[in-house]
Each structure stands twice: as structure tokens, then as C-alpha cells.
Amino acid sequence: MNNTKTLLQDLLQDYNINVRPVLNQSEAVKVNVQMFARAIKEFDEVKETFSFVAAIGVSWIDEGMVWNPLSYGGINQITVFFSQVWVPDLIIISPSDDLENLGAKWNRIRFYATGLAQWLPADLIQSTCAVNMRNYPFDSQSCTTSFTTLGYTGDEVVVEATSPKINISTFQENAMWDVVDTSALSTKAGVSWQVDFIFHLKRKPSFVIINVILPILSLSLLNVLVFLLPIESGERVSYCITVLLSIAVFMTIVSNLLPQTSEPVPIISYKLFADMAISALIVLVTIFTFRINGKDDAEEKVPNWLKKMYHLTTCSCCKNRKISVEQNTSRLCIKSNKEECIPCKNEKGVPILKTDSDSEISHQKLSDVVAKEQVTWKKINKMVDWMAFVLFTVASFFSFGVYMAIVTVRAG
To answer: What is the mean pLDDT of the chain?
Structure first.
């Protein structure tokens, strides 16, 4: 104890914390820095802030703290309070809040007899991080935290990264992000040196897929089921508007998870806009089907082009088939591997065309007979329902498939 007291008294008696610890003041103090990351506390994409817990290993040579261990009972290392000796004022130049220097008054510096100083301050480090949410939720981010020694030029203090990587040997995994890589590098910014510590992060998308992506897909598929509802129920319009509002709610939820920026625009925003557009078109088509269904066949005849479209869509399976006439009747029939043409039925469900093999006529004759069947506005409405169901189902799957293909390929 007496030797330690004597050593400290001798070393600190004429020590001045305002003087750089080199005998030749024209030389620079070389400061080595290494980061030991412990855990990610928060990554706020909306505010673009990144906070994590880490310790910074700082070392340098203090030529004013050199002694002969034999003169002090073999003591080869001591610890001194942070405020009693010169330390490099490392300041975060990418802070998310106030500009603060690293370290606190209660920190201790360990000195060895050779003059080597080791300092290991630990803190919650908060910095800004520019995010790119284009591929959300399959995005990757790179967050950089930079330190420099303000007040000293590059000729007075040189800050260098001890290792090209951040030490994550004791890192605790984060629930939302995977640390896929890290890097550390030193650069000269202006007149002073700075060291950059970079975290390369990849989002874990499972939560967003289950709580956002799959519900959006479910709503898109539920939306097209409106055309399967009987039009007499009167619930079609309220059903599709409810789904439209649900998609709008999901757009609000997703927008709250993303930064308020126009560049780059997340691809999921385009996907939600496409779903909104599809849902709005479904509402318009639903209203249109109500108008068609309400028309009076006696007052307004079905146009010929609609009749042709109806026959084309409902009896398309009759094309390129052999046709035969049933004896002692005036009805026509189709023969094709003993299969009936199911779509060609009347309103009571009785096939207009039956299988028979007694005689055959041309396809043109069949078209003439089928054309005589009365086509009403209600039948046109059913045709529109069927076409809209198929069209919007394909559009919903296409929108989802394009979105997944783009984000997964870009993320890969």
C-alpha cells in the first residue's frame, strides 16, 4: 500500500491533464479503439435511431506514466480515476440526441509500467441510422456509429481501429434483427481522425409475415368472394366496402411502421395501393351488377354482342365436338368420349344437349340452335359475376406474387 501511494504521488505530482502525454509534443498520440457489442436495445425505423449496449476498449501510450517496478516494490500496474489523467475525448458524431463524449467520472484508467493505458468505458450508445425500407419486411440495414476526438487535429491525435470487426463474442441475440456482419475502419474526416463501427443487420420477417402479409392476402381473397353471394341477399355492397375499409386499416398500420420518407418508397406500399385499387374496382363492379340485374327484359333487350359473349363463355366446351341429333325429338346433343357438355343447360338444370350417337350435324347447326335460347339480363349478370370472380382472383394472386418475387430477389 505504501509503495502504491508513493508511486501515485510521484506520477501525479507534476501531471497536467491538458498536456498530450508525449515527450515530443510535435508527435501524435496514437489511440487504438475496439468495440465490444453486448446487445441491441432498440432500432426505431420511423425515427431512424439505433441504440445498443457496448463497451469501447481504448488504449494509448502515456509517456508521463512510466516507472521502474523495482523502485516501487515490484508494482507493474495501477488504476487512476478518469478525471486525474489525460484521456482522448471520444465523441459520437452521429448522435440521435445530445452530443456527448464517451466515459464518466467514475471510470478508471489502468496504467502499466511501460506507460500503456487501457480504458474500457461501457454505455448505452444512441446514434442515427439512415434506413432503406424498400424491401420491407425482407430488408437489410447498415448502421454506422462514428467516434472522433474533437479539439485535436489529425497531427495531434490519431484514432485507429484495433480490429476490422466489432467484437460480438458476448452478443445477445435480438428478437427482431440478426447481426449478419460487422466492420470497423478508420478515416480522416476533415482535420481529425474518426473511427466508424458498422452493424450489418437483417430483419427477421416472421412477425410481419404472420401479422401483416398473410392478413393482407386473406383480405384480398375474401374480397373476390363477394361475387359468390346471391345478389338477392342485398349484402354485396356492404361486404365489399367492409373489406375495402379493412385494407385501408392495414395501410395505416403499415405506414406507422415505416419512416415518413418518399425515397425510397417501400414496395409493400405499392402492394397495398394495388390491393386498394382492386378492392375499389370490385365495389364498382358490384354496383354495376346490381344495375344489370335490375333491368327489365321486356323494356330493354340484351344486345347481340352480349348474347354472343354469353354463349361464348357458357358453351365454350361445345366447340370442336361432334354433334348428333336424337331421333323423334327436336333437341340436339353432343358426343365427345361419352361426356355431356355440362354448361349447356336450361334454367331448370336439364341439359339442352344430350349424348346420342344416331346421327350427326355440323357445329354451325348447333350454334344456330343454341342462339335461339333466350338470354336474359339475369343470365348476363351471372356471366359478369363469374368473369369478375376469375379476373379479380387472378389479379390478387398476381399482385401478391409480384410483390414476393421482387422483395425476395432484391433481399437475396
So the answer is: 81
pLDDT of residue 345: 47
Confidence of residue 257 (pLDDT cuts 50, 70, 90): confident
Domain parsing of the chain, residue ranges: 23-204, 207-296+385-411, 304-375
Q: Which residue has the higher pLDDT, 370 or 381?
A: 381
Q: Which fold has domain 207-296+385-411?
A: Methane Monooxygenase Hydroxylase; Chain G, domain 1 (1.20.58)
- Topology, domain 23-204: Acetylcholine Binding Protein; Chain: A, (2.70.170)
> With contact defined as beta carbons under 8 Å apart, do 189 and 148 qualify?
yes
DSSP state of 213: I
Alpha-helical segments (H) within 74-213: 206-208
Domains 23-204 and 207-296+385-411 share a fold: no
What pTM value is reported for the model?
0.73
Helix (H) or strand (E) holding 148, with range, is strand 140-149
Evaluate if residue 96 carries a pLDDT over 80: no
Average pLDDT over residues 355-369: 47
d(CA 31, CA 88): 8
Rounded Cα distance between 381 and 236, Å, is 14
- How is residue 233 annotated by DSSP? G
338: left (phi over 0), alpha (psi -120 to 50) or beta: left
Residue with cell 366496402: 241
